[in-house]
TrEMBL record:
Family of this protein: Belongs to the peptidase S45 family.
Biased composition (Polar residues): 438-458
UniProt name for this protein: Penicillin acylase family protein
Stretches for region Disordered: 437-460
Length: 763
């Protein structure tokens, strides 16, 4: 969404809002956090308090009233963020940002999520619909109370539209786009590579990685493939296109049973990783309400736009997620008998209405890949893809009850870890998984398409509870057994380096506390990168005089993604540049079709090492005599690029990882209006962590929260978030909590004493 903001008509509008005017309008937009309010909607009196961090502390008589108050809090603090989520999924961003957003709107309108959200809303049970209705009333009550609309609407010269119940489902669809669009694109690219370069090339670039850490210890067999030849036409291309930055993945979670804690309570760690923006995606929340005569208290984070606690604890159980990356999409090869329908979608932009034609089929929306037509069958298109079943975790008292309550949860499939105060811990794939049992990374024929299986949610997902070693973990790589891998497929798993490192850290201890888990979240030891370090050092040692300074930095690299390490910077960028150079001929051909190896870059690790070991002549560019000289040239180009970007005087010492990988959490508007950075952005933070260590961090990507808890011992729990609660830069809560996150301190999970309270009474 960031690129589309380039289309903002700033000019005199920005100048007019400068200085005191900006402050005045933002100040007038600050919500009232104290007092009494009489409104239609709630059944009973509700209190909405904020502590010194801005935690929303809600006390209500039932869940529906709690949803009203949560909607009110989200509407006060995060409405623009919510608006972007629904518009992103629905393909309606151009109405805010103009024609620059039309390409993204067309891409997302392909999925027709607004229509699907309306249908999904009708399928919810009455209790869930009532909760969404009350949440919506709360959001719109906060919106109506604004004396001045948010500065984002002032800058875009637009008016916020009321929230609707189906918009909350669109927020979930937006998470599908964030978490699973890579699977869809990955299989599209593989289809084109199969068409243009053949099945041997597909097999070669998707080889099984030797780094594996499934929960049952099973391993997939390693491939022993012949390296396919690159066509001469590809190698003779005068200008090659390099792969753009690959998709970063980084979420981790792990747990131990009560056998490995002093208290006997199980313990959970969860650090979901996402692209980091201002405001941060999550919203710290505590709900207090009654259910069936029981007092319920749920503490965790919510997603502005939806009424559920996404990750949290209810003092009996705690739960957390990492993205599952099983195969949830198939492209269907259409034949001449397939009936196609053309539909016209109307895209609203600031310049007017634009008509956009789409082709659909019984299998899903249709597009061209190469010269053939294919339909997309994606789990996000199915009726069971979105619902509010996740809220059932709030009232579950045990691991077993939590697993039972979320069998049909409508969310993008996740590795859910769930623990309880009795000491139990379990893992399960949780979310929308199709019942089809023959996943494929390449297209299936229309005649073989299992329509009835796609329309049903899987009931055979595996569960691992209280394993003999008392430890559970996931980190976006394969978690399921080798046998289950055939059933659920590979939707683009991460390299197993983090999973292996986390597993080994867990196996190295026999008792754990919150501080131990925090140290594991911050583990930046570069175990995976060590062989790349050894390769680069050996390469440069062939020219020891020319690269004496480089060799010295590499020898002192500290074997970690540490802030002061220059060697880690050199190794990391050499690896990335080598991938780009080696696969540039294939990327160049893909670019002609508006495709990219970006979604496949993490699959290429085994293939790269096979190429480095065998050094085939037909993969070597004509301007290089051998692979050794080519690697030296790749490194020299990589270093020159780094020095040009990060050093005015051409000094290697300026390339420390903390500077090169500095974390910059920005507001989408400040990226295009740098003059607003001082007001909108979080302070820049020295880089810590890399791409393949548990402490994953890039300049714009990192842990969106750090959560650690033993259910029943919430007073010792941690919930650190890289930003504050409010989306208004003048709010005292705009940056609250960021300092703890930036300095690797654990922010307390439980809210503190209330400093503001609104009493909401039924009218």
């Amino acid at each position: 969404m960031n690129k589309i903001i380039k289309g903002l008509a700033l000019g005199t509008g920005v100048l007019a809002l400068a200085g005191a005017t900006v402050y005045g309008l933002m100040w007038a937009n600050l919500p009232s956090l104290d007092g009494k309010l009489q409104v239609e909607g709630p059944r009973d009196t509700i209190t909405l308090s904020r502590d010194d961090l801005g935690n929303a502390i809600i006390r209500a008589s039932d869940r529906a009233d709690a949803a009203f108050a949560l909607g009110f809090a989200h509407g006060q603090d995060r409405f623009f963020q919510m608006d972007l989520l629904r518009r992103n999924a629905a393909g309606e961003l151009a109405a805010l940002f103009g024609d620059a957003a039309l390409p993204l709107d067309k891409k997302h309108r392909f999925h027709q999520f607004r229509k699907r959200a309306t249908m999904a809303l009708e399928q919810l049970d009455p209790e869930q619909r009532e909760i969404l209705r009350q949440y919506t009333l709360g959001v719109n009550t906060a919106l109506d109370a604004q004396q001045v609309k948010g500065f984002e609407y002032l800058l875009t010269n637009t008016t916020p539209e009321p929230w609707r119940p189906q918009d909350s489902l669109l927020a979930i669809y937006s998470m599908y786009l964030d978490l699973q669009a890579g699977t869809v694109e990955r299989e599209k690219v593989l289809t084109y590579i199969q068409q243009s370069l053949g099945q041997p090339m597909v097999d070669f670039i998707t080889q099984t990685d030797p780094l594996q850490a499934a929960l049952d210890g099973s391993t997939l067999p390693l491939d022993n493939l012949a390296i396919p030849a690159l066509p001469n036409a590809l190698m003779q291309t005068s200008v090659h296109t390099f792969i753009e930055q690959d998709e970063v993945v980084g979420s981790n979670n792990w747990a131990v049973t009560g056998e490995l804690t002093k208290s006997g309570h199980a313990m959970l760690s969860d650090d979901m990783h996402l692209g980091l923006n201002v405001p941060v995606i999550w919203y710290r929340t505590q709900l207090n309400y009654q259910s069936n005569g029981n007092d319920i208290q749920v503490t965790g984070v919510s997603l502005p736009g939806a009424p559920a606690i996404v990750v949290g604890t209810n003092n009996h159980i705690a739960w957390g997620f990492t993205n599952g990356y099983v195969d949830t999409a198939d492209w269907v090869a259409l034949d001449k008998n397939t009936q196609l329908t053309t539909e016209t979608e109307q895209l609203k932009s600031t310049s007017g209405i634009h008509e956009h034609q789409m082709i659909t089929s019984e299998y899903g929306p249709v597009t061209k890949i190469g010269d053939a037509q294919y339909a997309l069958s994606w789990v996000a298109h199915q009726p069971y893809a979105v619902n509010m079943e996740l809220m059932a975790l709030e009232t579950a008292n045990t691991v077993d009850a939590g697993l039972l309550a979320t069998r049909r949860a409508g969310i993008p499939v996740q590795n859910m870890l769930i623990v309880d105060r009795q000491g139990d811990a379990a893992w399960r794939l949780t979310g929308a998984v199709p019942a089809r049992d023959n996943p494929s990374s390449l297209p299936v024929s229309a005649s073989d398409y299992p329509s009835s299986q796609w329309q049903s949610q899987a009931g055979d997902v595996p569960v691992v509870k209280n394993p003999d070693h008392q430890r559970l973990w996931s980190a976006n790589s394969r978690v399921v057994s080798a046998a289950d891998d055939k059933r659920f497929g590979n939707g683009g798993y991460a390299i197993g380096s983090r999973s292996v490192q986390i597993r080994d850290n867990l196996m190295a201890g026999d008792s754990f506390n919150e501080a131990d888990f925090m140290a594991m979240q911050l583990d930046n030891r570069a175990i995976f990168m060590s062989r790349w370090h050894a390769l680069l050092l050996a390469t440069l040692n062939t020219q020891p005089q020319q690269f004496a300074d480089d060799i010295r930095e590499l020898e002192q690299w500290q074997a970690c993604a540490c802030s002061e390490s220059v060697g880690y910077t050199l190794v990391s960028h050499f690896r990335s540049q080598l991938f780009d150079a080696v696969f540039a001929p294939i990327q160049t051909q893909l670019a002609r079709e508006n495709m990219s190896l970006r979604r496949l870059k993490r699959d290429l690790e085994p293939a790269v090492w096979q190429l480095l070991e065998q050094q085939p002549q037909d993969w070597l560019p004509a301007e290089h005599q051998d692979w050794q000289s080519w690697m030296l040239a790749i490194y020299s180009d990589s270093k020159a690029e780094l020095l040009a970007k990060y050093s005015d005087k051409g000094r290697l010492t300026d390339l420390n990882w903390g500077k090169v990988n500095a974390l910059k959490i920005q507001h989408p508007f400040s990226r295009q209006i740098p003059q607003l950075s001082w007001l909108l952005d979080m302070p820049s933070v020295t880089g810590f962590g890399g791409r393949f260590e548990p402490a994953v961090q890039t300049t714009t990507f990192g842990a969106s929260q750090r959560f650690i808890v033993q259910p029943g011992r919430e007073q010792d729990g941690i919930m650190s978030i890289p930003g504050g609660q409010s989306g208004n830069p003048l709010s005292r809560f705009y940056r609250k909590g960021f300092s703890d996150y930036a300095n690797h301190r654990g922010t307390p999970l439980l809210p503190g004493a209330a400093v503001h309270t609104i009493t909401i009474q039924p009218q």
